[in-house]
Amino acid sequence: MTIKNLSKEDRPREKLLYKGPESLSDSELIAILLRTGVKGKSAIQLGEELLKTFGGLKSLFSAPFSEITKIKGIDKAKSTSLFSAIELSRRVIKYSSNANNPILGPKDVFDRIKSEFINTNKEIFIALYLNSKNIVILEEKLGSGTFSSCLCHPQEFLRGFFKTGSSRLILVHNHPSGDLKPSKQDINFTKELSTHLEYFGFELLDHIIISGEKFCSLKESGNI
Questions:
Q1: What residues contact residue 64 under an 8 Å CB cut-off, 6+ apart?
Q2: Which pLDDT score, from 0 to 100, does residue 167 have?
């Protein structure tokens, strides 16, 4: 059944207007983004297929562009609409995290940074430079890929300090595998960076690993 065959009040756009967005299912909301279906499948059915293929809304929003476009009927126009919605939601989360508030602990870092890891299956590394009041004055993405390809020599972090006049650093990266346990490489690099910064009068406050809705502080685990 196509969407046109549905009663007017059951069509996603009309349903949203008359009953509000909260009345729509995930597949109906996705259908609005897709706009049209394909031969033999309505936009709603296509939305249902996306959810089923990726195992739910959260996994769909974490799927790479190349995987989404493999689904029959999901062309570049449809996939870019989905990715635009994902990016908007990521920015809303980021902007609502009270970015000007001081960082008081790992949870504050997690709330501020977690949106950066939406829709990625690669390791991403972010440096937060803070002033003496623990307010972030620079958020710098170091790259994505593997640990060794993203993390530079500890001396490279000095540029951020000199550029901003900051005195403290928090390093954040994700583990897409879901395992929060710091690797030996995580620990060794953290200790090396902390020693290096201390020599120049700067402080590494923490190194935080994020995976999904969980995080691990290397400071709290005694690795700094």
A1: 119, 120, 121
A2: 94
pLDDT in tens, 65-75: 788 888 888 98
Q: How far apart are the first and last CA of the chain?
A: 60
* Cα separation, 188 vs 80, whole angstroms: 40
For the chain, list the domains and their CATH numbers: 3-94 (1.10.150), 100-217 (3.40.140.10)
Name the pairing type of β-strands 214-217 and 203-211. Answer: antiparallel
Beta-carbon count within 10 A of 188 CB: 12
Q: Are 116 and 141 within 8 A, CB to CB? A: yes
**Pick from 217, 203, 196, 202: which is nearest to 152 by CA?**
196
DSSP 8-state class, residue 188:
H
Q: What is the pTM of this model?
A: 0.64
